[in-house]
Amino acid sequence: MTQEYVPTTRSAIKYGLYVGIASVILYFLLILTGLYRHPVSVMSNVILIVGIIFGMREHKSLNEGYMTYVQGLGLGTMIAVITGFIVGLFMLIYMSADSALLAQELQLNLDNNEKMGEIMGYSDEEIDAMEASTRAIVKPNVYFLIYLFSYLIVGFLFTLLVAAFQRKNKDIFSE
Fold first, then answer.
1. What is the largest CA-CA distance in the chain?
2. Tens of pLDDT along 52-84?
């Protein structure tokens, strides 16, 4: 007797919340220690990959060990979007409350624009225009969207690979 199919949303929500909360804790610790823009922040990608793998394993165990590539792709992408929403919401709230972090982000972006403008040979007017657009973009609500879409894209790319290894289709000749 075969069991009924369990949809991917159950595992996606569960592991999206797990990964999102773990990522928020990581980002909070990185901000407190001053390592927010340090290469160690790549650990958030490791957390995401591990969450996607465990989400797919759970989904397979709930469905008699089977999961198609498309199901895995959808599951991993949903985990990434939920995680991106949670991390983006955290950064929106934190940057709204902590103007020092927002000012630090703005200054970092302005410095990078100025260096890039000098390297590329831009005129002072062009560098000033870059500065004005940077000031308009470096806002907490924009960071929410940046985190949401960056987790979506990065999670989708990781999921393309992970789902290929985690998939297991049912035998078409079995009943």
1. 74
2. 999 999 999 988 888 889 999 999 999 999 999
Non-local (6+) Cβ contacts of 59 within 8 A are 6, 8, 10, 11, 67, 71, 72, 75
As a whole number, mean pLDDT of residues 89-96 equals 94
Name the packing angle between helices 140-166 and 43-62 (round to 10°).
Answer: 50
- pLDDT tens per residue, range 105-138: 888 888 888 888 888 888 888 888 888 888 888 8
Residue 11, exposed/middle/buried by CB under 10 A (0-12, 13-18, 19+)? buried
Which pair of tokens denotes residue 11? 């595992």
- What are the strands, taking DSSP E only, across the chain? none
Cα dihedral 16/18/22/23 (nearest 10): 0
Residue 4, C-beta contacts closer than 8 angstroms, at least 6 positions apart: none
pTM beyond cutoff 0.70: yes
Q: How far apart are the C-alpha atoms of 175 and 170, rounded to whole Å?
A: 9
